[in-house]
Amino acid sequence: MKPILRIVYSSMKIQMKQTFAREMFRYIVIIFPLFTGLLMGFVYMDKSTADFVSYAMVGTATMTMWSSIAFSSASDVQRERFMGALAQIFNTPEKFYYIMLGKVLGNTLLGAVSMVISFIFVGAVFKVPINIVNVPVFLAVFFISVVSYMMIAMMLSGVLAVSRQARTLMNSMDYIIFLLTGSAFPITVLPIYLRFFSYALSPTYAIKLLRLAITGSVNTSAFYLYFVGLIMTTVLYFVVSLGLYRTIELRARVNATLEVI
Amino acid sequence: MIEVLNVSRSFTTKKGIIHRKTETMKAVNNISFSVNQGEIFGLLGPNGAGKTTTIKMLTTLLTPNEGKITILGYDTVKRAKEVQKRINFIYGGERSLYWRLTAKDNLIYFADLYNIEYKQMQSRVQGLLKLVGLEKYADKKVETFSKGMKQRLQIARALINDPEIVFMDEPTIGLDPAATHLLHEIILDLKTRGKTIILTTHYMKEAEELCDRIAFIKQGEIVDIQSPSAHINTAAKNSGKAIKSIEDVYMHYFGAERGVE
């Protein structure tokens, strides 16, 4: 195995082992998606099937995915800092970016499990048939969305590595994403100045695209527009995360932010 | 092997919520010393003297504000990755390990991060577990270990990349006599294999027995560097008192500031 793949794979494996060893894992991966799904299901049970699928099923699934990937990944930096392991892994000869990428990938796989659980659970409980009209497009969009979420997680974990205060930001990010990306309600109800932020967030495009793939409306101009939006924001996040990790290599050593004290 | 030239390091902290005040504390002030291959070099001084900051700069975890550190010919700031391949470090206490993983998982992960060849990895991990007397506990989670066992595992982790230089910051803190004895044996064994050890400790007898040379550090500045016997002779000559051990030398340098004559 090539060194980079080895680092990513090894970090992913360790991350998943640690997650399975934590009691909170059952809550994040299984319980939280089920409760969120039930909540959203009851909110949208009297609405049209299209709305139910859009918000109760796709919305919940993407929310749980987001919580698992981004929130867990960023929290891991803080956890490793308190354990004293952050300085240890940072000081190995391999690039910190690849180590963190492996950890984020581990959370992504678990997030994907959450997503599938919530999607199937909500459909089954509220007796809504899971009917994805365009499966190949759905899978392609799902894959790109997962990559995009990973890049957000990389940015957040990077910020946390250089700043101990970023924990506060992280705790509020969960709901900001839910509110701004249209996972629980259409973003058209938001004030125009807030919608600007919505369109800077890739989950907004991911959710719209997944809905269009489910309903089969993939040959519309809106689909291509959202697709370009998803790709562009993902590339932007990737570039920003790379830049962030380059500065981390220096700033963490200058500002001594890798440890608790 | 290690060259430290006119190195200083300060830390800046901000206080207050509305009227933010910046305070700068100089932890290390213009220190210079060199360490030879195969030497056990002690850094002694009271809490807050700058020992750990010095170790962190030497291990590339912190950048100096001024001066230059060269390890094995590599600048610790410009060629940090080259330095990291060839060194490793242990901090006293129970941190720096993944508690929810087994001892073996911890070592395998760090072997991956140091890109140890697969062929060597299993035998090295087994060998190190045997070296620190943990081979029977290879598959036990670290959280079930005693403090001494965790510290022994840290030693094994620090030797995973067969480093040329090992930095040990208070490695015997809180260990029972048997565990301390084992660590001393490992340190002396490393020396016979040509490894260089940088050691900080508050146990003067330990420093006197193990170190080839000792640097006393006070308020971020080096007071004197000599062999233990030379320190004893110099302190006896300067003080006119009966100084028979490194502990007496320590009290000669630092006793007055602690209110001890």
Automatic annotation (TrEMBL), chain A:
Question: Pfam families from the entry?
Answer: ABC2_membrane
Q: Which family does it belong to?
A: Belongs to the ABC-2 integral membrane protein family.
Provide the protein name. Answer: Transport permease protein
Q: Which residues cross the membrane?
A: 24-46, 52-74, 104-126, 138-163, 175-194, 223-245
- List locations, semicolon-separated: Cell membrane; Membrane
Q: Per UniProt, which keywords does this protein have?
A: Cell membrane, Membrane, Transmembrane, Transmembrane helix, Transport
The UniProt entry lists membrane topology as: Multi-pass membrane protein
Q: Which PANTHER family match?
A: ABC-TYPE MULTIDRUG TRANSPORT SYSTEM, PERMEASE COMPONENT, NODULATION PROTEIN J
Q: Which residues form the ABC transmembrane type-2 domain?
A: 22-248
TrEMBL record, chain B:
Q: Identify the PROSITE patterns for this entry.
A: ABC_TRANSPORTER_1, ABC_TRANSPORTER_2
Could you tell me which SUPFAM superfamilies the record lists for this protein? P-loop containing nucleoside triphosphate hydrolases
Determine the domain of life of the protein's source.
Answer: Bacteria
Q: Name one GO molecular function term.
A: ATP binding
This protein's UniProt keywords: ATP-binding, Nucleotide-binding, Transport
Sorted alphabetically, which SMART domains does this protein's record hold? Answer: AAA
* UniProt keyword annotation of ATP-binding present: yes
Q: Which residues form the ABC transporter domain?
A: 2-244
Q: Which InterPro entries match?
A: AAA+_ATPase, ABC_transporter-like_ATP-bd, ABC_transporter-like_CS, ABC_transporter_ATP-binding, P-loop_NTPase
Say if the entry is tagged with keyword Transport: yes
Q: What is the recorded name of this protein?
A: ABC transporter ATP-binding protein
